[in-house]
Specification:
Order of helices and strands: EEHHEHHEEH
Number of strands: 5
Radius of gyration: 22 Å
CATH class of the largest domain: Mainly Alpha
Structural class: alpha+beta
Distance between the termini: 47 Å
Helix content: 40-55%
CATH architecture of the largest domain: Orthogonal Bundle
Number of domains: 2
Shape: elongated
Number of helices: 5
Length: 139
């Protein structure tokens, strides 16, 4: 028997004291665990746009080797994955499914226009905000 078994803990969401059978317990019940998850996962559309734009600017500036050029900035699959905080394979899959702006092919490699990705992210944030407002109105 471990010394942590049936120990008293404070819920990470509501602060209520509870008896836990496991040493990894953080919440007094599923309702607090789910509420905490919803709270953590909610980001306003504005915060999302700001964070994605910042990440995109870092990627573009990191890869910027042609100062003063009028050529569009092209992002690799890994750059887009970093901007969207998803796996590179998901970027490839979404490109095949048409869920992302159409990529350019350079040989066998996919490249994305940075401006199109930025506009797509802003559009997705607007759609998300509108659907959240609609779901709150229906409650």
């Amino acid at each position: 028997m471990t010394p942590y078994r049936n120990a008293r803990y404070a819920c990470a969401y509501c602060g209520q004291s509870f008896v836990a059978e496991r040493s990894t317990a953080r919440f007094c019940g599923s309702h607090c665990r789910q509420a905490s998850y919803r709270q953590r996962s909610k980001k306003s559309a504005k915060d999302l746009i700001v964070s994605v734009t910042h990440a995109q600017n870092e990627v573009v500036h990191k890869n910027d080797k042609s100062e003063g050029s009028n050529m569009p900035r092209l992002l690799t699959v890994h750059d887009v994955a970093e901007i969207l905080a998803i796996a590179p394979e998901t970027v490839r899959k979404w490109a095949r499914q048409g869920r992302l702006p159409a990529p350019l092919r350079v040989g066998s490699k996919l490249r994305f226009d940075a401006l199109e990705i930025q506009n797509w992210v802003a559009e997705q944030a607007e759609v998300t905000t509108a659907s959240e407002e609609l779901s709150h109105a229906n409650r």
